[in-house]
Amino acid sequence: SLTDSPVTLKIVQNWVPRVSHYFDKEHYTYVGHQIVIQESIEHFGAVVWPGALALSQYLESNQEQFNLKDKKVLEIGAGTGLVSIVASILGAYVTATDLPEVLENLSYNISRNTQNMNMHKPEVRKLVWGEGLNEDFPVSTYHYDFILATDVVYHHAALDPLLATMVYFCKPGTVLLWANKFRFSTDYEFLEKLCNIFNTTILAEFPESNVKLLKATVREN
């Protein structure tokens, strides 16, 4: 049920304005580290959306509740990689996944921001929602403690494959953390489907940004 009252938060302006020759680089600070993200105007997936800022901020502020140290974390729709980088800094074994055309920029951001740090090196892999899951991520080998997803729900045709992908990776014991800007009726319809399948709670709301952060776990009968 969604009856527990979520915390109401504001996305803190965590990025550092820079005099920069590049219009496409954003500077953020999380967990005491400066993170430089290169965005790409060619792809939706290569821009930092508000859900990524909300989840990054929440993970940083709630490390006792969600301790990522040495946990296996899968990010689906990783985009620019900000959330995966933050999860790595927090000590997780991270696999960041997205569509093939986004991977080059994603890999660049992840390697650039994690190369000189004492942490588990994140892995970047192709994942097309709903496709080849058994072949690429066989259940016998891959088990994740956390699935992270931010702003993966908007006007696109892959909402059913996205839900199927969440269902595939969420095993007993896995926690799905999903942050999304809610703009359209389709966003709420997706939320309703999620609630029908998983135990779902709203952890936090960021009203100024219309972002909700949800936690979902498998119903164990």
Question: What is the element layout, followed by pairings?
Answer:
Layout: E1 7-8, E2 25-30, E3 33-38, H1 50-61, E4 72-76, H2 82-89, E5 93-98, H3 103-114, E6 123-126, H4 133-136, E7 146-150, H5 159-169, E8 175-181, H6 185-197, E9 198-206, E10 211-218
Parallel strand pairs: 1-9, 4-5, 4-7, 5-6, 7-8
Antiparallel strand pairs: 2-3, 8-10, 9-10
Helix pairs in contact: 1-2, 2-3
GO molecular function: methyltransferase activity
Protein name: MT21C methyltransferase
Organism: Pelecanoides urinatrix
Describe the structure.
There is one protein chain. The radius of gyration is 16 Å and the shape is globular. The strands form 2 sheets. Strands 1-9-10-8-7-4-5-6 form an 8-stranded mixed β-sheet, with helices on both faces. The longest helix is centred in the last third of the chain and has 13 residues. It has 221 residues and is an alpha/beta fold. 27% of the residues lie in helices and 26% in strands. It has one domain: Rossmann fold (3-Layer(aba) Sandwich). The protein has 6 helices and 10 strands, in the order βββαβαβαβαβαβαββ. α1 packs parallel to α2 and α2 packs parallel to α3. β7, α5 and β8 form a beta-alpha-beta unit.
In short:
With 221 residues, this protein is of the alpha/beta class.
Name a few traits of the molecule.
single chain; 221 residues; alpha/beta; 8-stranded mixed beta sheet; 10 strands
Overall geometry: globular
CATH-scheme architecture = 3-Layer(aba) Sandwich
State the helical fraction.
Answer: 25-40%
Uncertain residue segments? 17-23
What is the CATH homologous superfamily assignment?
A: Vaccinia Virus protein VP39
| Element pattern in H and E | EEEHEHEHEHEHEHEE
Tally of individual domains: 1
- Which strands sit side by side, in order, in the main sheet? 1-9-10-8-7-4-5-6
Which secondary-structure class do the elements indicate? alpha/beta
End-to-end distance: 16 Å
CATH level 3 topology:
Rossmann fold
User: What is Rg?
Assistant: 16 Å
Count of helical regions: 6
Compute the average pLDDT.
90
Largest sheet: 8 strands, mixed
Strand runs, count: 10
What top-tier CATH class fits best?
Alpha Beta
Beta-strand percent range: 25-35%
Protein name: MT21C methyltransferase
Pfam family, one: Methyltransf_16
InterPro entries: Methyltransf_16 (IPR019410), SAM-dependent_MTases_sf (IPR029063)
GO molecular function, one term: methyltransferase activity
